[in-house]
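Posted in: Structural Biology > Protein-Ligand Complexes

Title: Requesting predicted complex, beta-D-galactopyranose in pocket

I'd be grateful if someone could produce the 3D structure tokens for the following input. Sequence and ligand are given below.
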Amino acid sequence: MNRRQLLLASAASAAGVASGSLARLPGPAVSGDAGGLPMPRPTHALPPVLPESDPARVRLERGWQFHEGDVVAVAPANHEQTYLSVKAGNAQGAAAMAFDDSDWLPVRLPHDWAAAQPFVETANISQGYRPRGIGWYRRTLRLDPADRGKKIELQFDGIATNATIWVNGSVAAHSWSGYTGVVVDLTPFARFGDAENVIAVRVDAQAMEGWWYEGAGIYRHAWLVRRAAVAIASDGLHADPRRDGDGRWHVPVVATLTSVDHAPATVTVEAMLLDAVGHTIARAAVSAVVGALEDSVATLTLDVPSPDLWSIEQSKLYTLVARVRRDGAVVDERRVAIGFRTIRFDPAQGFFLNERHVKIKGVCLHQDHAGVGVAVPDALLRWRLERLKAMGCNAIRCSHGAPAPELLDLADRMGFVVMDENRQFNPAPDYLAQLEWLVRRDRNHPSVILWSVFNEEPMQATEAGVEMVRRMAHAVRTLDDSRPVTAALNGSFFDPVTVANVVDVTGFNYYQNDYDRFHAMFPARAMTSSEDTSAYETRGAFSGDPARHIASSYDVEVTSWGDTHRSTWKKIADRAFVAGGFVWTGFDYHGEPTPYAWPTISSFFGILDLCGFPKTAFDIHRAHWVDDAPVVSLAPHWTWPGREGQPIVVFVMSNAEQVTLRLNGRVLGTQPVDRMMGNSWSVPYVAGRIEVVATRGGRTVASAVQETTGAPVALRLTPARSMMAGDGEDTQPVSVDAIDARGRHVPTANLPVRFAVSGAAIIGLGNGDPNCHEPEQSAADAGARSLFNGLAQVIVRADTGKGRIVIEARAPGLAPARITIDRLGIAAPAQVAVTAPQQRIAQWRRSMPFDARPSPDLAPRDGDNNSWAFVASGTATPGGDGGGGDGGRWRIYRTAIVPWRAIGAGGGRIHFASVVGRGELWVDGQRIATKAEVAAAPIDARIAPGAGARQIVLILEADSHAASGIVGSVTLSAA
Ligand code: GAL
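-- Reply #1 --
Done. Output follows.
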């Protein structure tokens, strides 16, 4: 059973795909619950996986070789080398097909090499003091001869930052943004059967597109796609429901077909709409003609009079299945989850989803997580979104660039609305293409409600800036006329020349004091806060200490351009015309360590820290944003030895009516809840138990407790889930904390912890401390990380197969912790088979025919590109005049090759799979083999060890007027 089948076998899970079951996830444990660990209890189920959308694609994530640093190609030494070096298929250096990558590091994708870097003071501050640099990836790939005639593509969902991609020695694509996917058409370069294909990717991560940690490498999923010759193009399906004036719905389906065939083809495109349980509720078909090597567009309409609507609480999805039939047979299929909803931004009342008012309670997100950098596994991405959902967050801004596609798939399923953002503010063709790609990729997602064309551009109030936005907005609207275009402005709202004049929704980054003036001056303009807050908190710290780069978690430290979490939200909540806001940020991220610098390596802005451990800001937003469940929280922790008698500010957030504070059973007071700004008491510290009880109508609806804990005596491990899929992909964060003799979380413990795992691999470590320089990656089965204010996190990825995962944690002087997680026998997602690289001789110079045996020394003169032909291994030379001469029977084939390191060092074998003609094989002036018969047969010989280039010469004698030549592959292998 694979995870999808498991998912479908479970009605509950299936409903989870279609409806907002995640909205019912347990919120964070009440403080004091689970021994005070500020994380939810483990769940006992696997989260549903994302369904496959494209059966033609398979992950291409194993079998890659990686080299950190650049590989500079040796400059051509003579005219012939120069001539050849610029020819198709002849890329040089690490891009060369025959390059020896045997000493490179085997890696699996997604891969962020920056995450393994140490922190270096001279490296860029904004990128988190991690050297990024240049790196190379190579992958050898075999294609089944049955795939001949198909359209073959590589898809990279994201490479940080600039990349050049070669296929079989030819440049096949460039990528100019780390946020944009790249589709590489491999079809014209493809080799089938035994002949390998070689993919080489040079990644330039010195290029920066942001002022935050951007990672380095092929950090999102990578795929090999094999489609029928006539099929729907990648990102070629547009299906975004529309409501008609009479309230009925239809789904306009536009399929862009593409052909690599040799003649025009007539196909039928079918579209079907499936409901949550898989019943077909609408269907249509149309026929289309696609010319050879051309595209054509098929348009259909599905009528769905009264579908269940998609919303934040009930994220009901339908599945649109589009199929291409040719001669009656289905040759291509694509599935896309769609949702029926209307959106509207009202200048006076804000945002409406399905004509119901929704205040946008959003967060801005960068991509990285502790330990893994930007290569965030799907399951961890989901876990992060679950944390946000538990806080009552309903919106995500993808700041400041296109997110991983999985984020939007999850947003659709979990019920978030999304402000989808473009990275590069530039309407020049290369960059406009990035924006168009974003819209094409994401326009089917019901979650996406806004296209943001930029964030804070200094040209936002210039004539050129306006012209740039006009073009970008036009490009967006051409591809999608249903969602407003916005831009995140920092100021310039009132200038006569400003982009605010040409966007549909004005995005305010900060400038909260201008809200009212803007609304008064432009009452017909819709607006939202696109970014706000920028307050600092260090998780678990309750007094700021600038000397130690620590921020207080009382929601009091703010940037000069931002404000506290509470005051910010109050200004948004109080104004109906402000559609909502996006807090900077949901999670801490590496880089931008404002307001500090070295040795601080990550931000303080997060509502949750780098590991996703909640700060006080989490409770603030929970009280602000959760309406359907009682909330109360109490900060700080209550373990302050040495502070006896001193006043401690007790900070309470709640959404109830009244809160009553008790210390060791004694009531300290009752206050009406201030949901916006919170309630506080100054309490002289006495060890014991402090508790807040929240009431509504006199009835207790929630409570929170902090207790003074004793010294830590043991470690504790708390996984997010008690089971994992044994699919080699499933990943989860495991919290580690120290507990006292009574099993209570010790919030002050800062102990070094060592981990050991079996049945899984450690892929990352973190503790949420912005000042910690401990490595975030280490050996797969062991790692170390200190607790920071009581907590650390180890991120584990399950091995394959049914079994058990055992995780152990040890700290000096404490009882160790050991947990067991069930690993379920669930099939791993299909991966393209790994192919061991093999050195081949692909190219030969072939002489003109001779009547008599030529000398093996005979060679073309340097600069003679013409009288000796360039022939590939596997090519027969026709006999007689067909060979381009006067019918002589003798020819020379010659080439020079540097054997791969192992062969050069220890010697090896040269193997001609098939040669026609009588022959002599010479290497470096020595005859090493003879072939006595004319008939096709292999030649195999030993090559002596030796450094540098080797001269290989094959003299062949054909039967008169018969074909001859090197008709099979030629390989070198170690002895
Ligand atoms: C904003 C910017 C963000 C981040 C933030 C920090 O101006 O858009 O990317 O830098 O400030 O407060």
